Amino acid sequence: MYEIMLMLHVLGAVGMGFYVVLPIMIGKASNLAGVGQQGLAEGLLSANRIAQYFLILQFITGGYLMSQGDYAVAWMIIVTVLFLGIAAVGGIITKPLKLVVSSISAGQSTTAHIKKARVLSFIVLLLYIVNIYFMLFHF
Hints:
Elements: H1 2-15, H2 18-29, H3 34-68, H4 73-92, H5 94-106, H6 111-136
């Protein structure tokens, strides 16, 4: 059972790899015209939703793996807080991406929404990298 959960956990980590390319993809949005920005934002919304499902997989499998291992309490708290941070900020990114889509439909500027989404995507990337570090070098 442990090996199956570990495989699912690694699969979930790969699925969360979307957050590595998200800042790059959002950065390209400012170079596109209105319809292109709208299409990109809609695609990123769909991909973010899939990544959120992978987060649920990570939560379930990670909880099981922590219960089977001998980890320090501080390490478990750190990785759980990092994970919840990724989940929270990953969910918060949804709003500015939706606002990009609605602003284009209304003929308004999307610059502020794209900038906000880009900052949030860098925060998620940072949390994701720190979380990977703690997964590799646990104490």
